[in-house]
Amino acid sequence: MLNRKRVFLVGKFMDSSRSRLLLDYITSSDIYSFTYDDTRFFKINNKNIINKIFLLIFSIINKISSFLKFLISDIIFILPMGNIDSFRLKIANKMGKRIISEFYISKYDTHVYDKKRVKENTKKAFKLKRFDQNIVDYSTDLIFLNNSEKNYYLSVIDRLDTKTNTYTIPLATEFKQKAFLNYVNSEKEKLILCWWGSYIPLHGLDKIIQSAKYLKELNLNFKFYIFGRSDSRAVKHQKKIDDLFLNDVIEIDNTKSFSDKSLDKFLIENCDISFGIFGNSEKAKVVMPNKIVEALSLYIPVISQKTEALDEYFIDNKNIFFCESNPKSLANKIVEVSKDKIKLKNVSENGFKLYEERFSKEAYIKDLKKVLENKGRD
Questions:
Q1: Is there a single domain that holds both residue 309 and residue 295?
Q2: In the predicted structure, residue 83 carries a pLDDT above the cut 50
Q3: Looking at the structure, do residues 19 and 159 belong to the same domain, yes or no?
Q4: Known Gene3D superfamilies for this protein (predicted)?
Q5: Does this model's pTM top 0.85?
Q6: Residue 53 contacts by C-beta under 8 Å, 6 or more apart in sequence?
């Protein structure tokens, strides 16, 4: 036990399959031991004053204990979207610890340019940018999802000249189950199209909805399902569906998720083609969204606009279908591929092969070991 390297994990596991893959590896390893501070454990939501006092006392004790564990750890591993204050970053850096950061997204880019919730050149924007810069400046090792996103994020936060070790480990998810692909296998005549994710402009969902109007005009026998996470943020999309008279071919469902397996079940039993990314922003032309890797793990073929990150791994008409980022081009591509079931099946199978090679749990752990053992860099 004394020979094991102590790893202090910073961040949350609940919303990240990537973090859970890391946890699976570390817990089964005889090289590492780890500690993780779940701040929700001491969350004070009880109205009883005595319980509140006890929880507050134990919360303070836990913070002290957590900081001591932080100090004796050999490796500080910042999980995707993990939060760490600059004080602890600087302390770890001064003590010569390895600080490995999963630079999954830029907080500055997400809030200022993507979600547009923070105005550029404001105090809050500066604070977000400073957080990203601190992660880059004080980490010993940075993990990016691909070279395109690495260059994009480092450029956005003015750190292209960083001397920190950088690695690329692609998106990863566990294998779920092979989808039935009823239309592709001629079991059903109706083509089922699916999109899932968060309702942010990055994904270009409005274009996908608009494409359904053209599909309807072309008399394609199809149904389009949208799986989101928020009823309130789905309102504007439902309005667009209403305005275009598409309620007979489009259905929004915000009740299903991968966490309870309900979304897996629906996609496996029904989905024939899934959608990737169609946003207009600079970021949308660079990144690789999770939904594409999730689709590959289910054998489901994907149609998407081409991005720099996708271009690093995918080949059009071999393991993905690319099209221009506008509703008419998307509609035409759907009609085109729907007429060639053999090609759909081939793209599905080649997509899964690519998933096994680059985006599977096994591929992730193989790359992660190299980082933890510090063998080579990009």
A1: yes
A2: yes
A3: yes
A4: Glycogen Phosphorylase B
A5: yes
A6: none
